[in-house]
Known about the structure:
The chain is α/β, with parallel strands linked by helices. The protein has one domain: TIM Barrel, CATH 3.20.20.70. Helix content is 50%, strand content 15%. It has eleven helices and eight strands. The chain has helices spanning 9-16, 25-34, 53-69, 84-93, 120-132, 148-157, 167-172, 178-194, 210-216, 227-236, 238-257; strands spanning 3-7, 39-42, 75-80, 97-100, 136-141, 161-165, 198-202, 222-225. The chain has an eight-stranded parallel β-barrel, surrounded by six helices. α9 packs parallel to α11 and α10 (227-236) packs across α11 (238-257). The longest helix is centred in the last third of the chain and has 20 residues, at 238-257. The protein is globular and about 50 Å long.
Amino acid sequence: MTRLSVNVNKLATIRNARGKNAPDVEALAAKILKYGAYGITVHPRPDGRHIRLSDVHALSDLVNRWNEREEQKAEFNIEGYPADEFLQMINEIRPDQCTLVPDPPEALTSNAGWDVIRHESELKRILGVLRKSSVRVSLFIDPKTTGEPEYAALRRLAPDRIELYTEAYADHYHQPSREKITADYKRVAEFAKSAGIGVNAGHDLNQENLAYLITQIPWIDEVSIGHALICEALEQGLETTVNNYLSILDRPSRDSRG
Length: 258
């Protein structure tokens, strides 16, 4: 079954708008785990406009405490651009997973996958650094710009996982081109599977478009969802929203069981 990691950046954005501690990001992250999500994701940026360094430490501690007392284990995933300060933070905190994205710190949100050919030597060095910290590493990849040359580079780099950048999938979901775009994603996911690389997915996924993607690529290990989930929770409530996602992700497993 594909696991759900909830990106709590949006909760921090709301909190920071008033300069106090409402909503309490740590307390809501604890509830998200209680409701059944497998992981918590953050994407800190140097300007602290949403998740702050103090949040990263607090949420890491939260997940560690959770795993000490709960049978269902949780994971902590930190996304970010691999600047020296970011790598130092990863080495200090040692999350379960580090997702490397190519967008610079000032970008509004992640908006591209890695050019793994152009950045291969840099990524090789960074992967080596992170492996010494025993952190699972995922590379943000855009299927639209990934073909045989990129496959060769990914085989050489051998990341633990790739994360499919799903903005194009979401944009085409209601268009006649949906099947063609989804086929591109499946092609890259099939490559990863054949190369022994795990597959994550994230960006603009929501309750409406998630099921089709998981049906087409049921071996996706994890989806990271934040903006849409928090927006939906404004109407549906946080617990109901998390449970809805878990039900969607369990559907392919139920179907395979008959």
